[in-house]
Amino acid sequence: MNPVTGQEVxxxxxxxxxxxxxxxxxxxxxxxxxxxxxxALLARGHALLEGVPGVAKTTxxxxxxxxxxxxxxxxxxxxxxxxxxxxxxxxxSPKDGTFTLRAGPVFANVVxxxxxxxxxxxxxxxxxxxxxxRQVTIEGDRFELPNPxxxxxxxxxxxxxxxxxxxxxxxxxxxxxxxxxxxxxKDEAAMLRTYGGEPPKTTxxxxxxEVVSLQALTDRIHVDNDLHDxxxxxxxFTRSHPxxxxxxxxxxxxGLVQAGKAYALIEGRPFLxxxxxxxxxxxxxxxxxxxxxxxxxxxxxxxxxxxEALAKVSYRRPAAxxx
Length: 323
Prior knowledge:
Elements: H1 6-26, H2 32-42, E1 47-50, H3 57-68, E2 72-76, H4 84-87, E3 88-93, E4 98-103, E5 110-114, H5 121-124, H6 128-133, E6 135-138, E7 141-144, E8 150-155, H7 168-171, E9 176-179, H8 185-194, H9 208-219, H10 225-239, E10 244-246, H11 250-266, H12 274-285, E11 290-291, H13 299-312
Parallel strand pairs: 1-8, 1-9, 2-5, 5-8
Antiparallel strand pairs: 3-4, 6-7, 10-11
Helix pairs in contact: 1-3, 2-11, 9-11, 10-11, 10-13, 11-12, 12-13
């Protein structure tokens, strides 16, 4: 793999800045959710946005998808949604006596899964194969999904009426979880001015080919072996924590390094640093933890455990070997 050059990183960072500026025209609020969503895009991961209704979760994902210039489909999750409504199904044509595939909305570059926790586990599981393997199986036939492929899902807190908690297996397939709270008074006033008339329309900044190119560049970000050890140490800390029933999986360790590489590219560096890993760790690790007893479902407790890992697991660069 060829090393990333400074010129490549500078050009990529310029395109990323333009992307974020375009989305910020429609989404008024903290820059952190958009930053983490960009990390997920570059790292070929999926993002789960969580927050109470009305905090612009759907506005953010729709603007982000439009700025990517990719084919986009939206799925509104409801209790009566069926797996075939997501993946598609074969339809019989009486005219010629054959079955033809009617592709579902999952066949798109960007899939907006709105209120994903309002559908039962059977329907939610229809996305599992698509999110992990970038393919779907319909009546025994496998179909590749477009490249790039990104799932941006929104959910309301699981204690609201009419919602279902996501299974652990599906939670683990989201690279990052983005918690969206209420905007500040200043941001809310700016939102009123922005949407007081005709809302701004998002212009496509990238193309599917450019997105794939940026993802390939992220793969080439240099990572020292000691940073691999550091990422492993962080996830192992969560597995041995006394308050944790189920710690972060090896998939989380892979995601932590890949997300760190994406953050390094956003910051304009051709190599990964410990600060990059620490910057993405709360978004990558926290939602994967299953806590004991009364702590289960406590987002603050999960955040505190990740913060404890970052505080107690030290990064040590190995000493150079004597010649």
